[in-house]
Amino acid sequence: MAVNLTFSQHFGYEPLPEPMQPEQISDELRREIWNAVRGLLLDKETITERVLKSFLKRTEDEIEKEAHNIQLMQGVVERKFPFQEEIKSHIISGRFNSVLDLVGNIINAENTTKEFASRIKNLFEEYTAAYRLDMSERPFKFIPCRSKEEGEAVQQAIETIQEADMDGAATHLRDAAEHINAQQYADSIADSIHAVESVARTIDPRASETLGPALNSLEDAGLLKHSDLKEALRKLYHYTCDEQGIRHALLDKDAPDVGLDEAMFMLGACASFAAYLVSKHRQQAEGRESDG
Fold it and tell me: Quick one: which of 151, 39, 54, 49 has its CA closest to 102?
């Protein structure tokens, strides 16, 4: 979705909006999220109750008391829903992960329409946020990215994997993204690697310890025609899993070099790696059908 530029931005009187970095949500985007959420919660009482109970941890009697007080004041103040100011504060002033948690809670509520989720998705794209809403399946989840292209690449990889019915690998990638949003970087790296492992085992069950059998299977089918490419893939996989490689160096939760940069790199690299293997495996299966 294209960014809607103002007259001043279009003609150079004001700077163009800059892409946000991960763990940032701009004031402008927060304002638009609040406007969207407020309109929804004013009209959807059941969604309001879900948010209050599960996200704000409010008891039913607190919700009822707040709603009763608002009813008594109708005609004197603007339309409100229970604990409106607290929810607004979470969105306008809360940490980025608190905003993502709250919005994720709302868009995945039972009675929230897909149209509302699409509105949130478009807002994050329009304001060049470092997150993209993955709506490929429920529950919808936010995927961190450093650029529009990177976000689209990860989403496309997940869709490619899901289309091949490799739901386990897709789930690992979506969980890896969610771990990044929760600042659980070692857990994210683990899930990213597990996604590649899951695809490899689907291609060849013997690939439980190493990627080799899966690559050999694809090569035997004539789908890995360049030995250098095969060797590069093998070395990349070996590097992520070797005792001296990424897995053991970065999965230590106390290691100082386990951070956002490493988790983001592994999410993008493993998503692309897994999607590549899936595409080749699909060609392998199609080849078998045509031979039969």
Answer: 54
Question: What's the pLDDT tens digit per position in 120-142?
Answer: 999 998 888 899 999 988 999 99
Distance CA 99, CA 251 (A): 27
Strand partners of residue 133: 142
Rounded Cα distance, 114 and 109, in Å: 10
User: Quick one: how far is CA 251 from the chain centroid?
Assistant: 20
Strands 131-134 and 141-144, by their bridges, are antiparallel
pTM: 0.76
Q: What is the C-alpha end-to-end distance of the chain, expressed in Å?
A: 44
Amino acid at 95: R
CA 78 to chain centre: 35
Q: How far apart are CA 181 and CA 178, in angstroms?
A: 5
Give one DSSP letter per residue of 148-213, joined into a string. HHHHHHHHHHHHHHHHTT-HHHHHHHHHHHHHHHTT-HHHHHHHHHHHHHHHHHHH-TTTTS-SHH
Measured CA to CA, the distance from residue 176 to residue 270 in angstroms comes to 10
| CA neighbor of 82 nearest in space, from 109, 42, 133, 114 | 42
Q: What does the alpha-carbon distance between residue 109 and residue 38 come to, in Å, rounded to a whole number?
A: 15
The tokens 């509520």 sit on which residue?
109
